[in-house]
Amino acid sequence: TNTTYNIGYSNYGGLDITLAIPITKWWAVENNFGGYLSQSVSTYTGYEYNTSTISGYFSSDHTFTLPKTIKIQAGVNYYAASREGFTRQHGGATANFGIQKTVAEKKGTVKFSVSNIGRTKYIADVKNENLDIRWSNEWEGPRFNLSFSYKFGNSGVKANRSRKTASSEESGRVNL
Question: Three-state secondary structure along the chain?
Fold first, then answer.
């Protein structure tokens, strides 16, 4: 016999904010902040809970434009601990780094990057009267990438021009 139960419900509400900040002509920053409130409720016999949590994340990406068409990119990501039902998720952080150079008369780009510096893990504890579980999930370790891209074709072709319509030309002449 296969029986299906509706264990309860969850409510979520959150806010995300992105701030792109040009610090200087050669340094740009993009920060992302997010926060949320969640509630999980179960009325299933033996597995009752009513939990609430306030949690969030933060990421900051920095791009440095250097002379000789070199760019350096660095970033960090942080996520706060949270809770849902019987599960307590641990917080964590990771970082990434990259450097690129434009070559071949600005038609090619060579880029070296490393992501997941710090070996991100998902760690959670699941506990109640009947369960005591430590869940640890480690994704791939740091990833190193070396790439080359090249733009083929005629770079002298002009971009599409904005087309003027008769009504847009006339609207400039109307005086009210």
Answer: CCCCCCCEEEEEEEEEEEEEEECCCCEEEEEEEEEEEEEEEECCCCCCEEEEEEEEEEEEEEEEEECCCEEEEEEEEEECCEEECCEEECCEEEEEEEEEEEECCCCEEEEEEEEEECCCEEEEEEECCCCEEEEEEECCCCEEEEEEEECCCCCCCCCCCCCCCHHHHHHCCCCC
Beta partners for residue 98, in sequence order: 73, 113
pLDDT higher than 70, residue 162: no
Mean pLDDT across the chain, nearest whole number? Answer: 84
Sequence ranges of the domains in the chain: 8-153
Residues 96-136: pLDDT tens digits? 999 999 898 888 999 999 988 877 788 899 888 878 889 88
pTM (whole model) above 0.90? no
Are the C-beta atoms of residues 113 and 97 closer than 8 Å to each other?
yes
Could you tell me which of 103, 136, 105 has the C-alpha nearest to residue 120? 136
Q: Are 133 and 149 in contact (CB under 8 A)?
A: no
